[in-house]
Amino acid sequence: MPEQTAADALARSSSSRYFSSGSAGIDSLLGGGFRVGRLTELYGRSGSGKTLLAAQTALLAAKDGARSLYVDTEGSFRPERLQQIAESRGWDLRGLLERMVYVRSDSAPEQMEAVRRMAERAATAPCAIVIVDTLTRNFSVELPGRPNLPSRQAALNTYLSEMARDAYLNGRTYLLANRVTFGTTHEVGIGGKTVDQLVHESLRLEREDGTLRVTMASGDSVNATIGRSGVL
Questions:
Q1: pTM over 0.85
Q2: Listed range (111-115, 186-190, 207-211) with the worst mean pLDDT
Q3: Which of 186, 195, 198, 212 has the fewest beta carbons under 10 Å from its own?
Q4: What residues does 206 pair with on adjacent strands?
């Protein structure tokens, strides 16, 4: 990593731009949107809206000319949903989906390699947004249970550290969808303290009918509406 002064680091952080989530309420909660150079965890139960919110962010970025990489570990990517959102908002779909690069990763090494080799691939080097959906699935499948906990957390630590470095050096925004497990008192994102310590923000998503509640680690929260045109 290149040397820099603390003043340089502050200037770089202060000048960082944001990508809109598509919801004015969520953007306000985040202080402007999903910030460039940072990792944001989106965690919640299956069907809580994690995939929709992340994909909508990439679609809005594509509308402004930015490219994104979608790393799919669950088989949850639905381009038809993106088409529906674009059409319901009256957007011309031409060129939008071409700016969204899709990669299916069925193992932890494949998932990690998708990030490591971004700069080497012409299709992914310009990507400004990286979506991983979901973050911990392959690690949990390949290194299951308490006996594998140290190895699983070490692999996650390496992966998150590499993403954080790439986000900072190359000015990318990372959105990391994650499922939940039940902790001592409430639901928490899978990955525990390893994820907590290495992401910059964690957003808990809870969906009830057409309402999406988004809560930050600080306890601040906002309600958004889910409809045909996405999250508003």
A1: yes
A2: 186-190
A3: 186
A4: 213
